[in-house]
Amino acid sequence: MKNSRILVVDDDPDVLTAVRLLLKQQVSKVITEHNPEQIPSILARETPDLVLLDMNFKSTINTGNEGLYWLGRIKSLKPDLPVVMITAYGAIDLAVTSLKQGAADFVVKPWQNEQLITVIRGLLSKKDRKKAPEPAVGNDSEFIGESEVMQDLLYKINKIAPTDANILILGENGTGKDLIATAIHRQSTRAAKPFIKVDVGALTESLFESELFGHKKGAFTDAREDRVGRFEAANGGTLFLDEIGNISLQQQAKLLSVLQNRQVIPLGSNTPIPIDIRLVCATNVPLADLANESRFRKDLIYRINTVDLQVPPLRERGDDILRIAHYFLQKYAEKYRKSITDFDKSAAQKLLKYHYPGNVRELQYSIERAVIMADGEILGADDVIFSAIEQTPQNGSAQRQTPEEHNLGELERITIANVVEKHGGNISKAAKELGITRTALYRRLSKYDL
């Protein structure tokens, strides 16, 4: 901890003072800020190793819960930066939601000083371990695969990772495409350089160029300062473009130009900036559909697809299902301080027989929920409940229920489930179609146990 820098964001000056006094002898620097709207500028000039973030602010941004909003902003700017949420006892449900949205942990006010230091030390230690050389992807704790289909995939990854070939990762939502992209980077010759991830499918036309290529101050109305684009930020390392199959033809043309010329021109500038990146892309769109030129440019496919990797869905991975389930069981039993150690035979059979439309992500959330709710030391079949979001017939012929048959709450539940399913579990896109914020959608998902 001695060489670490901690950013503390809380609008209570007493909290800022207490944390600063507690940590000033423990770490090299404590950065305190009462206004969360300063977070982007702080992260631009400082390099904190961990953030302590309050969950409730009286700010000008009205999201229903500012803590979740700013957690999302931090993770978009610094995906690998650990964030610990500070919450009141009455907001434990929101704190659990924050874990699902990327928070590393949470502490409840008033906390015990020893407990807070233990949490911080553990996360910083974990971060340091991640900086060390990683073992082969087959031994990665979160990448578990002993089935034949996964061993074949791991063999391909180990072969292509040390090269500089551009990779296209194909597979259904929730199969772990982002883990594969990370594993490829860690085994590459660029492992010591940046790994930058961008969900390009969520970028609007107006944000696409600014986010990827950067902009100069004054380039457009809200450009109050220069911004480095993700291509430039990844220079020397790996750029991972997720959901590449969902970008428009106009965006594809701009991306192709950059890849061909190996340079970017920030908005508001005429000066090209050379780039040296290894490109990894991912999509849930089948390659045959991408080959339709009315949807995707073939010249761009060839640029991004020197080698393609097909990630098998979880339902095709046999006993890997139980291996992954045991990993999540151990992980969440430790996180929630439960003494749960195993699944009984009925639970194991239920896990193996389920078809997992939501893949590993659905299994993870189901195990996490089971650990939270269970009272005993062994999980039974009744403890394992799969997400209602995925509970629609696979042929898409779900019988629509009419408003006359339900009260308003039930109608809202059905509408939310249908929209989230339509977008394959993509919360950002579902929230946009429903006309509500991500935070509001998460509250409703929790309310209706979806």
TrEMBL record:
Annotated positions of the 4-aspartylphosphate modification: D54
Keywords, ordered alphabetically: ATP-binding, Nucleotide-binding, Phosphoprotein, Transcription, Transcription regulation
Keyword ATP-binding: yes
Listed InterPro entries: AAA+_ATPase, AAA_lid_NorR, CheY-like_superfamily, Homeodomain-like_sf, HTH_Fis, P-loop_NTPase, Sig_transdc_resp-reg_receiver, Sigma_54_int
Any Pfam family the entry gives: Sigma54_activat
Domain Sigma-54 factor interaction residues, every copy: 143-372
Every Response regulatory domain range: 5-124
Cited SMART domains: AAA, REC
Protein name: Sigma-54-dependent Fis family transcriptional regulator
Organism: Parapedobacter defluvii
Organism placement in taxonomy: Bacteria, Pseudomonadati, Bacteroidota, Sphingobacteriia, Sphingobacteriales
